[in-house]
Design brief:
Radius of gyration: 12 Å
Number of strands: 0
Order of helices and strands: HHHHHH
Distance between the termini: 12 Å
Shape: globular
Helix content: over 70%
Strand content: under 5%
Mean pLDDT: 95
Length: 105
């Protein structure tokens, strides 16, 4: 199954987020950078809401959970697993791959 345009756009976001955090850029700063560079208005607005939630102290998975129109339950649960296990690199790659493959909505 091929990814939809939305899934491909989200996969690119997660790959960019993975690369920035892998490069030892703080998770919050990584998201700020992505928001500042994002050209898709809908994704930019959604990520801005996530960023605001993170700055107020909400956990990453919960911040994304608050945006169900953009981030599926599968993605949110994988983020929660990453928070619990610390396996960020592996899990962020799985999210991006799942979106590319059309596994995750």
């Amino acid at each position: 199954m091929m990814a939809t345009e939305k899934q491909a756009r989200l996969a690119r976001f997660w790959r960019k987020y993975l690369r920035l955090t892998r490069g030892r850029i703080d998770a919050l700063r990584s998201l700020e950078i992505i928001v500042s560079e994002e050209t898709d208005d809908v994704l930019k607005a959604t990520l801005s809401k996530v960023l605001t939630s993170l700055k107020s102290g909400i956990a990453l998975s919960d911040a994304f959970r608050q945006q169900p129109e953009m981030f599926s339950l599968c993605v949110v649960e994988l983020l929660a697993a990453a928070e619990n296990s610390g396996a960020w690199d592996d899990i962020l790659k799985e999210i991006a791959d799942g979106l590319d493959e059309g596994t995750f909505a």
